[in-house]
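Field log, afternoon session.

UNIT: design team B
ACTIVITY: writing a sequence onto a fixed backbone
BACKBONE:
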């Protein structure tokens, strides 16, 4: 009997627009990347990644253990889901959406592994999924949808690999400290393509101010002015709350030149060094 673990991560075979993802064997082909030959010389799926049918929709079930044993492959699977606008949620969340309380619903296993080729959208399907004439929506990301910020923030913070741990840290720790998330969503996409994480704080040196912790746009959605829109929205929030300063830290290096240019264009100035002491390096 095949039963999904409530904590398993599900890449659901429907796009943000509610369309069934194509090609029809995408789940088997994606899981085939991790397949191997068994004792009968037949390809079999990896124990932590398997294709399943859930309510007649092809999906990929991923055990949380995968991000520990093969973080590179886990990152690849998450990037694949984001690039193709596929929903990512736990099995328990999927059941809750369907109004099913029990986590013991049996999914249907799919056939043995097939060719190890990652599926991609055809040009016609890509065109159908994209509509540049519709403006992207900027809105706050609430606690119930924190996972929508994971894909973008994992680009900025490569150490982020566990979506469940990410949601737990944001909702239970950082939001309690005043952390808020803004996201830009293109039509039909369930994941934000640009994200800004910030918090209001007060200290002796700067008084009441807003500190931007995270600001990122997913690479393929850059050059649309999304970073500017997010900064302008934070400035609007600051003025509305009587906050006179906005702070942001940014690493140095040639790869950060574009980000620095945007900050300068929006009135930011370099005002201090940022020192870090790594205690493990002290003798």
């Amino acid at each position: 009997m095949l039963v999904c673990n409530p904590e398993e991560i599900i890449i659901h075979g429907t796009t943000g627009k509610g369309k069934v993802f194509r090609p029809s064997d995408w789940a088997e082909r994606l899981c085939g990347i991790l397949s191997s030959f068994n004792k009968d010389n037949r390809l079999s799926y990896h124990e932590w990644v398997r294709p399943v049918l859930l309510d007649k929709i092809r999906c990929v079930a991923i055990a949380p253990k995968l991000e520990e044993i093969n973080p590179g492959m886990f990152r690849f699977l998450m990037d694949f889901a984001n690039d193709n606008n596929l929903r990512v949620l736990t099995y328990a969340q999927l059941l809750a959406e369907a109004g099913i309380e029990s986590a013991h619903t049996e999914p249907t296993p799919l056939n043995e592994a097939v060719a190890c080729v990652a599926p991609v959208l055809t040009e016609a399907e890509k065109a159908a999924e994209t509509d540049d004439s519709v403006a992207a929506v900027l809105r706050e990301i609430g606690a119930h949808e924190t996972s929508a910020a994971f894909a973008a923030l994992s680009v900025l913070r490569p150490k982020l690999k566990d979506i469940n741990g990410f949601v737990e840290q944001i909702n239970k720790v950082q939001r309690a400290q005043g952390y808020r998330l803004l996201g830009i969503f293109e039509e039909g996409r369930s994941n934000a393509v640009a994200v800004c994480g910030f918090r209001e704080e007060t200290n002796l040196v700067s008084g009441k101010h807003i500190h931007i912790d995270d600001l990122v746009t997913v690479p393929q959605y850059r050059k649309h002015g999304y970073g500017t829109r997010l900064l302008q929205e934070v400035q609007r929030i600051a003025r509305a709350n009587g906050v006179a300063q906005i702070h942001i830290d940014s690493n140095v290096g040639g790869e950060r030149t574009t980000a620095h240019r945007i900050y300068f264009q929006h009135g930011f100035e370099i005002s201090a060094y940022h020192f870090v002491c790594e205690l493990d390096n002290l003798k």
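LOG NOTE: The chain has two domains: 9-127, 137-269.
NEXT ACTIVITY: expression trials, pending approval
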